[in-house]
Amino acid sequence: MTPTSALTTRPLGRSGIEVSALGLGCWAIGGGTVGDDGRTTGWGPVEDTESVRAIRRAFDLGVTLFDTADVYGAGHSERVLAMALAGHLDEVVIATKFGNTFDDDGSRRGHGSDVSPTYIRSACQASLRRLERETIDLYQLHVGSLSDAQADVVAETLESLKAEGLIRAFGWSADVAAQAVRWAERGSCSALQFICNVLQETPGLVDLCEKNSMAAIIRSPLASGFLTGKYGPSSRLPGDDWRTQAAARGWGDLFGPDGSGNPKWLAKLEAVREILTSSGRSLAQGALAWLWARSPATIPIPGFKTVAQVEENVGALRFGPLTAAQMLSIEIGRASCRERV
To answer: What is the value of pTM for the model shown?
Structure first.
């Protein structure tokens, strides 16, 4: 079927910045980071040459938003992004994050967190150097939970960086609405980043973004790859893949400790698969289309490691959001699955 509802751009909240309706999440291309416990955490093997090719392909296809963090690969993701976009850095919007500490010496060792004003300023300067830029378009707090007093100090520091021209806008990568409300009410936060997909939704955050004219930057729009349909009861992920480690530590249940797909979530996926793949979309493209239909504030940032993954995800833009009828069918499917469970 020929796509009839192409989607191109969306506003980055109240920042005045316009971005492609689909961005790219650049965690995987940073490679693994070694924690204090000695474990390497990442998305498995990654090749910089392919990462660069994928980023350039995304740019050629119209993607203008690239989301990274200083801790991804302990600075490596930011460097790869700068390399790939050399000569085009003024044509794209770079979002990066701060708050997690690491050794930027090639050892790729990650540590704890620091949100003091002094650290934030030093982290901002370090990201600017790695990204080879004079300004960061969107600077995001990467620590999910802070006291009100800490959050206020961080916001004040970011407002100062914005006034000085070091950043254009700022946001918070958090999954708790009660935390984000404090920044939303300040009137200076442009975006919230959180988990949302057709299987999982962070309560209250999409509504909070709509109410306060903030962008909802959607982390894990494909449920950490689950919504690509590649994983089942017999699938296996490597031991250094963060999804396997998360399951082993009780941080999530999409995947089992052996890297297999959880049967409970596979059943939920089957309940919506037919609608998501209607109109000629792939399963991943349908999942992205659901997010665009969920709210005009949403900007999904699926991760990638290959050119093929980028091409499939960007291809979803040609189809645009799901229709109201398709969204209703999704809700019926999810409700029936809840009743069976």
So the answer is: 0.94
